[in-house]
Amino acid sequence: MKVKLSELFFVCLKIGTLLLGGGYVIVPLLISEFTQKRNWLTREEVIDFYAMGQCVPGIIAPNTIMFAGYKLRGTIGAFCALIGLTLAPFVTILLVASFIGIIAKSVIMNDIFWGVNVAIIILIFLTVKEVWGVSIVDKITFLIFIAAFLMCVFGISPALIILLAALFGVLRAKLKQQRSEHR
Amino acid sequence: MIFFLLCFEFAKIGFFSLGGGYATLPFLYHMSEVYNWFSPQELSQMLAISSITPGPVGLNVATFAGFKTAGILGSIIATMSIMLPSLFMILIISKVLKKVKDSPVLNSIMYALRPATAAMLACVAFRLFCDSIILKNDFSGFSFLDTKGFLLLIILFIVSLKIKKDPLIYLAFGAIAGILLHFNHILAL
């Protein structure tokens, strides 16, 4: 079944509107909208696109949703998802640009931001819990998780961590291939 | 002419920044020094605002800078330019991936990438927890717990165990709780 472009656009518009506090919020939003509500993508695919979105230069959230859009409707889908995601932030900034001085000083705005920040912690925690089942499948993947977590805490660039993990994946595939040839 | 310059500068950022919204920051600060499009102070304000408005920081700052420089047309050009390099790259990568689907090497790469990605997400949650719940006292060097924040976190956690809801619910709940828990700010107005 083909996903309707208009539906894809409006879902991405909704995601763009809710994309508060940083690009990684795209993962819970994608899982909620694309996986749980619509069955467009599996959880694995969302995580894969997020991982790939970090490897491509540019901004992670749009990158991730472009991969998702391409998967659903090809080139036009990627473009549609990008425009949908960008529209709400774009309009908001145009409005904000005129009142920047007032908003930056507003105490209430800071309070809202404070509360949203706490909610985001829970949101990301839930996401990790959600993707745990599909990504940590054995001892090796658990070790990768621990290693990557420690590297990340100590400030190693995400691009490097992803590169190392990909390299490990390639080596593992080559080793397996050799072993099966020996038999 | 300004439009070509905007397009070129932001496409450059889109092409060279790797690793998320904050990776664009060094480029943007450099830009504020080289051109008179926006001041470093304006950029810092913009960052603070980007964190409460929807959308990734890099994209928001591009819109803002474009608007400051050349109005609405400028903001459209800046926003599109920062995204175009990745759009093309993603189209190419997706086409290639379609052909090599189900190759053992690709599957093995994804097998290793998934836990690494989950770990990086966990790390983001950990960092945010340290930044917004455990506050550092600059004078004594002691860290202390933000009781209100911790309370809200516990409540949200319990809610999340009981019901599975839209991310929107959590965000809205957080925003309202943010205002209510600091009601003295409203009284002071």
What features would you describe in this structure?
Helix content of chain A is 83%, strand content 0%. The longest helix of chain A has 39 residues. The mean pLDDT of chain B is 81. The chains are: A mainly alpha (183), B mainly alpha (189). The interface between A and B is large, with 104 and 92 residues.
Strand content of chain B: under 5%
Distance between the termini of chain B: 47 Å
User: What is the first-to-last residue Cα distance of chain A?
Assistant: 43 Å
Q: SSE string of chain A, helix = H, strand = E?
A: HHHHHHHH
Q: Can you count the helices of chain A?
A: 8
What is the approximate shape of chain B? flat
How many E strands of chain A?
0
| CA-based gyration radius of chain A | 19 Å
How would you describe this structure in keywords?
heterodimer; A: 183 residues; mainly alpha; 2 domains; 8 helices; 83% helix; 0% strand; globular; B: 189 residues; 2 strands; 77% helix; flat
List the helices and strands and how they pair.
The complex is a heterodimer of chains A (183) and B (189).
Chain A: H1 5-18, H2 26-36, H3 43-55, H4 60-98, H5 100-105, H6 107-135, H7 139-153, H8 158-182
Chain B: H1 2-16, H2 25-34, H3 40-50, H4 57-99, H5 104-132, E1 134-136, E2 143-145, H6 147-162, H7 167-181, H8 183-188
Antiparallel strand pairs in B: 1-2
Helix pairs in contact in B: 1-4, 3-4
